Amino acid sequence: MARTTEGNGVPVPQRLLAAATRLFAERGYDRTSVQEIVEAAGVTKGALYHYFGSKEDLLQEVYSRVLRLQQERLDAYADADAPVEDRLRDAAADVVVTTIENLDDASIFFRSMHHLSPEKHKQVRAERRRYHERFRALIEEGQRAGVFSSATPADLVVDYHFGSVHHLSTWYRPDGPLTPQEVAAHLADLLLRALRP
Q1: Is residue 37's pLDDT more than 50?
Q2: Distances (CA, A) of 40 to 33, 34, 37, 137, 146
Q3: Number of neighbouring beta carbons within 10 Å of residue 165
Q4: Model confidence over 105-152: pLDDT tens digits?
Q5: Which residues does the UniProt record annotate as the domain HTH tetR-type (predicted)?
């Protein structure tokens, strides 16, 4: 059985994911071999196959781990005891910050998702849909309460915000003029302004 950690104390699955993420970002998913991933992670192929069934499983996990983090945080914001406008603003800003903090993961996924098998693609789409539905529920809550305008359907509002989020990897640069928090505040403000009654 493969060891859970190697010499530096970092768990093997995290080392494999870090190596795969870096290589997929630099070279592309299709131009990165399993051998290159295990060499970069300092583990054996046996260790990779112990934790991940394939290179495709690594690709799926690169994005799924970000989605899990974002879902957990969205659930916390949505369940908070605060006005719906504050909860939506916090959730809208958080998805921007967590995407920027995991920009390689997001860009790899959007660039390489066509490499996933139909079954894995379906699983990831279901995870994304669950996130979007929870986000949409916040908008609908505010619309029912009269806090947000109902002029634009909630689905379209969700698509508007996430269209901006999904394109962050095409233009955001860590050395640019705006911090992740500043970008998040601007995009959250745009969303809330669009929903004003």
Answers
A1: yes
A2: 11, 10, 5, 42, 54
A3: 18
A4: 888 877 888 888 999 989 988 999 999 999 999 999 999 999 999 999
A5: 10-70
Task: State the Cα–Cα distance between residues 87 and 107, nearest whole angstrom.
Answer: 27
Cβ atoms 3, 12 nearer than 8 A? yes
Q: Give one DSSP letter per residue of 131-170, joined into a string.
A: HHHHHHHHHHHHHHTTSS--SS-HHHHHHHHHHHHHTHHH
Instruction: Decide if 37 contacts 59 (C-beta within 8 A).
Output: no
Contact criterion met (CB below 8 Å) for 59 and 115: yes
User: Alpha carbon of 115 to those of 40, 55, 112, 166: distances in Å?
Assistant: 22, 10, 6, 18
For residue 1, what pLDDT is reported?
Answer: 36
Whether 163 shows a pLDDT value over 60: the answer reads: yes
pLDDT at 41 over 90: yes
CB 146 within 8 A of CB 197: yes
Q: What is the pTM of this model?
A: 0.86
What pLDDT shows up at residue 182? 97
Q: Report pLDDT for 8.
A: 63
> Which residues in 63-82 are b (16+ Cβ under 10 Å) and which e?
bbbbbeebbebbeebbeeee
